[in-house]
Design a protein that fits this description.
about 300 residues; alpha/beta; 2 domains; 5-stranded antiparallel β-sheet; two-stranded parallel sheet; 12 helices; 9 strands; about 45% helix
Length: about 300
């Protein structure tokens, strides 16, 4: 094992131990307050744990050390080893899941930072849909869902006649996309969207300047980026984790040109965190992004 990778693994193990120890204290506190608190107060418990998790990330010397390495390989090791952290304390169960937040396509990067659609990326979307035998009307529908409400804007569907209160500036969440997908299925009687596992390929951030971390790109993402078949996408996915340049992936000139349509990187230390809390019949789930450099959480989604 390379020295740098060994250091990253050691730091990861230290981080896991620190998380376990500190959250054990937090869980004890949560248990103490829940003995006399009714079900409607469950949100308070989730907020306490969320604050604990954020503080652990912010104060983690292990994360600081990983950032000092500035290594795509070290970050990959950290994410892989910290992917699933179960923590239990009597009746309270907490599971923390960590993944790269930049291994998928942010659908909102179909627009640039000025709010204009990028033709080359829209073409990539249309080709991707065609590969999955999905009518390109779905592409028009997605674009409609993020065209905004400026005066004079023209829509290519009647989506907002049926959903007049639907947000229109960008795809804001998984649920937002589900509403758009449900409209497509009902309006056009197509079930072809089932051919795409949106969970594995896409995420949603209003920041249209986000990059794809190629070391974490899923096969579905590679298919989107390059318009390649599944076999080639699986091959590129298998090469991820340690790459610092395109040569590592063995892309040909045509593939490099196709990839240039998108913003990409080999090191994006932003993690997607899911915290699940269970106590008896009650359950809460919180998902958010954490920027390790900025020490800041964002895009919080609560399910209680």
């Amino acid at each position: 094992m390379p020295k740098r990778n060994a250091i990253a693994l050691l730091l990861t193990l230290s981080f896991i131990i620190a998380v376990s120890a500190l959250l054990a204290i937090g869980l004890k506190y949560v248990k103490a307050i829940t003995d006399d608190v009714a079900k409607e107060k469950f949100m308070i418990q989730t907020q306490v744990l969320l604050e604990d998790v954020l503080q652990i990330f912010k104060q983690s010397k292990e994360i600081d050390a990983l950032l000092d390495q500035n290594s795509s390989e070290g970050f990959y090791t950290f994410v892989q080893q910290s992917a699933f952290l179960p923590l239990n304390s009597e009746e309270i169960e907490v599971v923390i899941e960590i993944a790269s937040a930049r291994g998928k396509i942010n659908l909102n990067t179909l627009k640039d930072v000025n709010g204009s659609f990028v033709p080359e990326r829209v073409e990539a979307l249309e080709a991707f849909l065609g590969f999955h035998t999905i009518d390109t009307m779905y592409a028009e529908l997605l674009l409609d869902a993020m065209r905004g409400t400026k005066e004079g804007v023209l829509y290519n569907s009647d989506l907002f006649l049926l959903q007049p209160n639907l947000f229109r500036d960008y795809i804001a969440s998984k649920r937002h996309l589900e509403i758009v997908n449900e409209y497509f299925k009902n309006r056009y009687r197509y079930n072809t969207l089932e051919a795409i596992d949106f969970e594995k390929g896409f995420y949603f951030s209003k920041n249209s300047a986000t990059k794809v971390d190629l070391n974490f790109a899923t096969p579905l993402v590679w298919t989107f980026l390059l318009g390649c078949d599944k076999a080639r996408a699986e091959q590129l996915y298998a090469l991820g984790g340690v790459c610092g340049d395109l040569d590592c992936f063995g892309l040909n000139e045509s593939e490099k040109e196709l990839l240039s349509r998108f913003a990409y990187s080999f090191y994006e230390p932003v993690i997607a965190v899911k915290v699940t809390l269970r106590q008896n019949e009650m359950r809460a789930k919180i998902a958010f992004e954490y920027d390790m450099k900025l020490k800041k959480g964002s895009n919080f989604v609560y399910e209680i």
